[in-house]
User: Fold this.
Amino acid sequence: MSAALPAGLRERLRVARPFLLTALAASLGAGLVAAAIAHAPTRPLVWMVAYLILVAGVAQGVLGLGQALLPPRPPAARRCIMEWLLFNGGNAGVIAGTLLASPALVALGTALFVAALAAFLLGVRGAGGGWLLQLFRAMLMVTGLGACVGLALTLAGLAR
Ligand code: HEM
Assistant:
């Protein structure tokens, strides 16, 4: 099927692939955890399921695909690897920090995550416009705000 795609689009989808595959894996993992804990859900685990779907799944898919399709030229593979590491290293830190009740780990994860968002913002410089760019920017804003609120809740100990 990919042979039928124009070479330019194939190259763009190739750089989006790590983000899309990770988003799929996170959503599958979330579904499995939800099924496993359904008989006795706990607040941190239900939060983790939501986080995996919304942030590691939907947001990662939109940002990875948006950055691959929006700029005049597809991003370099090295840039995507750096973003993938920041974004998913951040997710791992936020999740582990929340489950282990370690505010320092949540703060470290949030810092990596926000650095990834900044890299994604720079990654679409020169994009023309349109609904996908609006969706991309909205996703950066919502997740950026969510990260700040989540860190504030953690530091204030209000979420428990
Ligand atoms: C996508 C948009 C987001 C929404 C709508 C959202 C919403 C929420 C809500 C409602 C809570 C309170 C949960 C509770 O009562 O236990 C929460 C907690 C939290 N969120 Fe988010 N959030 C978002 C994104 C993020 C992001 C991007 C991060 C980090 C990078 C983050 C980190 C956290 C953390 C660490 C907590 C505290 C969990 C706990 O200690 O129980 N959130 N979020």
